[in-house]
Amino acid sequence: MKISIKDMKREYGVEIAKWEYEDAYAFYNHDADFKDECMDGNHFAFFNEKDELIGYMCFGVEARIPTTERAVYSDDYLDIGLHIKPDYTGKKLGSTFIKTAYDFALATYNTNKLRATIASFNHRAIKLCINNGFEVLQEIAHRVSGVKFTIVVSTL
Questions:
Q1: SS3 call for 80
Q2: What span, in angstroms and rounded, lies between the C-alpha atoms of 43 and 144?
Q3: What is the CA radius of gyration of the chain?
Q4: N or C end: fewer C-beta atoms under 10 angstroms in the chain?
């Protein structure tokens, strides 16, 4: 699959806010406010060759979580959040998404030092990152919910 990247638009945010992940992954669902939150210049949309919105990524503080631990996020890495439309999860497209995001970060932000914060129950995403040049750095806890997250960093 060939993926293209476009600057985020409010209409994409409206569509993304309607995506519904199931079971434990419902954790990743957005509310209607996402259409405004994603307009910060750090969100980008993924499209397939049919020009269908199939995912998005964000960079910087939007890709972080509030933690119980101190000094978790140093400036050594660029934080990235990567989200695939529920219809496209489990279809063996994750490596393509990661490679596309990595290449975009290198070209746009001039860095190959990426850091992702992933809910620890999301074993698929953590394994996918490890299989694509990331290593586990540490586990942390969300300051409000207490949910455990795993931080991975690129080693490429």
A1: strand
A2: 24
A3: 15
A4: C
Q: Could you read off the pLDDT tens digit of each residue along the chain, which spans 156 residues? A: 899 999 999 999 999 999 999 998 898 999 999 999 999 999 999 999 999 999 999 999 999 999 999 989 999 999 999 999 999 998 999 999 999 999 999 999 999 999 999 999 999 999 999 999 999 999 999 999 899 999 999 987
**Domain count along the chain:** 1
Q: What's the DSSP call for residue 125?
A: H
How is residue 149 written in tokens? 């997250």
Contacts (Cβ under 8 Å, ≥6 apart) of 8: 38, 39, 43, 44, 45, 56
Identify the CATH number of the domain in which residue 131 sits.
3.40.630.30
pTM above 0.90, yes or no: yes
Q: Could you give the C-alpha distances from 151 to 7, 10, 86, 126, in angstroms and in order?
A: 26, 29, 22, 9
Spatial distance between the Cα atoms of 129 and 125, rounded to a whole number of angstroms: 6
